[in-house]
Every structure is written in structure tokens, then in C-alpha cells.
Structure prediction request, 443 residues.
Amino acid sequence: MSKPKSDKQTFLFAFIVLAVCSMLLSATAAALRDRQQRMVEFDRKRNVLLAFGVEIRHEDGTRFTPEDVDRVVEQNIREVIIDAETAEIIPGLTRADVDPRHIRNKIKLPLYLWEENGDVRRYAFPISGYGLWSTIYGYIALETDLATIAGITFYEHGETPGLGAEIERPWFREQFKGKVLYQDGEPVEFKVAKGRADVQYPDRIDHAVDGISGATFTGQGVAEFITRDFKLYNRFFENIRNQ
Amino acid sequence: MATTRKIITDPLSDNNPITIQVLGICSALAVTVQVDTAFVMSLAVISVLTLSNVIISAMRNLIPGKIRMIVEVTVIASLVVLTDQILRAYLFEMSRQLSIFVGLIITNCIIMGRAEAFATQNPVRPSLMDGLGNGLGYSVILLLVASGREILGSGTWYHVRVLPEAYYGNGLAVLAPGAFLILGIIIWIQRTLTGNFKDD
Prediction:
């Protein structure tokens, strides 16, 4: 800022700065876009695997690479899309063909089938709903009885770190294993207790887990959307049960 | 060289951007629940601050006075978006946890403050040092606050358990008021030790 600049110089300078900055940013965004999308997709698949109870580590403790995750998904998981209205599988439709908004609004329901030697061993589907501050996204896996929880993950949320965000932690997620969402021909109201489940819900301990201290509302939200989303898929599950 | 050293060491204590100038408090509260997020945030701020100081200092004789601040913000904003994009591509987990706070580095008063107060009036080399020094000064406090909060709040440090398993975790330390308390205590200790405070 030595001597004052003329208007022409000012405009020229502004133009050059803006041109350089915007080109730099466009170039970076374009160069990194593929990798960013791969990371998002990797994270999604990894969480499906986690819900299915797959250790996403090798035996020597190193974490799965995106290629490892792809391989396991390729080998074991089949994805079908269910029409929420008719509760039927839409034949030939894959996730890539579906408008993401339809999945988010639960008009089209993706269902993941874990298959071994042609037999379905587990089912998993996405769950989402409000916690305290944010929409929480996750996956839940069921055993072949379509009632018992095999695993659960939460992978995207904006809950308070250290409080609501504890839903991501293994101690919280592990509790869901073996809990039951369907009994005597009816979906069951699931509960996340305020404090200990065996104190608050002693007679329905199969349908409740311990809450997180300081995150009562997050827990209530989680319990509500598990119950609600299970009911959505249950219409399709009834077809399987009746077969 | 004595002055160069002073440019770096000054912001670490006697002229620390957080504890003395009380700038950049917002992010100091937001990302200090755990040490790992505070660490990545520190690296992001150090790189943005150093680069913005260098670039603005290199252009200081060319920048027209009328649009000085707009140019500074443009440079800073570009660097921040760049950092955010890189985090998303290479440190996905971390960028998800830091979420909006990387973007908010743009509004971190320390960066604009150093550009205005130092980089526009000094050559590139001292500006680089000033950026590094202030970035480190910010980081030291961020990591101290985060250490306090993670240990008191979760009983861990960098996800390694330091307090016995029976320790329940103090909810207050996890929430924003905990950060204020710890920051206040750090400022108190620092000012008592250095005697560096003005009592008008």
C-alpha cells in the first residue's frame, strides 16, 4: 500500500486476485471430487458391514482399505430396493437408479441381504431420524427371524461430542445385539432408557437398552426412529414371514 | 535474528492471541472436547495463518488501499476452502467431526488480525514467522484446553485412557461452559506467572 492506486489499477488488481483464487479453487474441487465421493461411499459401505457385525479389520489388526470393503460387499451383500407403498421389491432396481431423495424420504427403501452360499443369513437397512440437534443416520441389521437385532451403527450426526455423540461408541451399540423388535406378531416399541434399562424397564428388558448420561433426548430420538423405521420395513418382512 | 525469534515466541505467551488478546475464542470452545480434533484444527489454522500472512505480505505493495480488506478476506477464504477440501478427501473422519468449524476459520479474528496488523506492513520472512508464531500460540492453548476437557470429561487423552475405568466423566467439561472455565483458569495461571496484565 505504498502510493494510492487509480481506479483502473484497483479493478485490474481485484480481477486478477479473483481470477487466480477461483481457478485455484475450481481446480482443487475438480481434482479431489472423485476421492471425496469415494470416501463418502467407503464410509457408507463400511457402516453397512459394521451393522452386519463384520470386523472391519484384518486379523493382524490393520483396518480395511476401501478395496477390502468393496470386496466383502461384493462377495456377501445383495441390495434390493423396496417400494414403501406396495411393500414389494422393485425388480431389477439398484441404488444407482434411485433418486437419492426418495431414499432419504423413505419412499424407496433399500434393504441389504447378507448371503452365504445362496442363503440369506442377515438383513440390514438404513435408519434415520432426529436426535437432539441433528438428523442421525445409521444402519441396523436383523437376524433371519426378522425380529432380533444383529448389530447397529450410527455414522452421521451432529450430536454433542462426549454426550449424544457417544451413540457411535461400541459400548452403546453392543447393547442392541440380541434385543427384539417384533414379538407376538407385532412390532414392539423400542426404548433407550434414561439411565439403566434394567431399572427403568425391568419387565421389557428385551426391548430396551441403557441410555447415555447427559444425552436423554438423543436416546429418545434413536429409540423412536428405530421403532418407526422398523415398522416401515416390517410390511415387507410380513411377506417373508408368510411365505 | 533476535527479533525474528521474538516474532515467534511472543505469541506463545506474552502476546498469545487467545489468552492475552482473547481472539479466536469461538473455535477454541467448539473443537476442544477431544484432543484429536483440536490437533487437526490447530494444523489447519497454522497452515491457513502462515500462508495468508505470506501471500498478503508478498502483495502488500500492490494491494490497493480501498479494497485492502476485501482482498485479505478473499485470500483467507480461498485458503480455508482449500484446507476443507483437502481434509474431506484425505481425513474424512476428522473432517466430519470438525464439520463447520474448518469453514469458520475464515471468521477467526486471529487470521484477519495478523493480516491487518502485521502482514500488510512487513516483508515476507517476518510475516511467515509471525504466522507460525501466532498459529502455534493458538495451538498451544487449544491443546491445553482440549487436554483438560478430554481428561475431565471422558477420562482419556487422545483416546487413551488415563483415568481409571470407574471414572464416570464430567458432563460439564464436555459442554461449552467447561471450556470457558478451563480457559479462564489457564489465563489466570498465565497472568499470575508472567505478571503480564494491565490493571487500570
Observations:
- The beta strands of chain A are 77-83, 88-89, 108-116, 119-130, 135-143, 149-156, 182-183, 186-187, 191-192, 208-209.
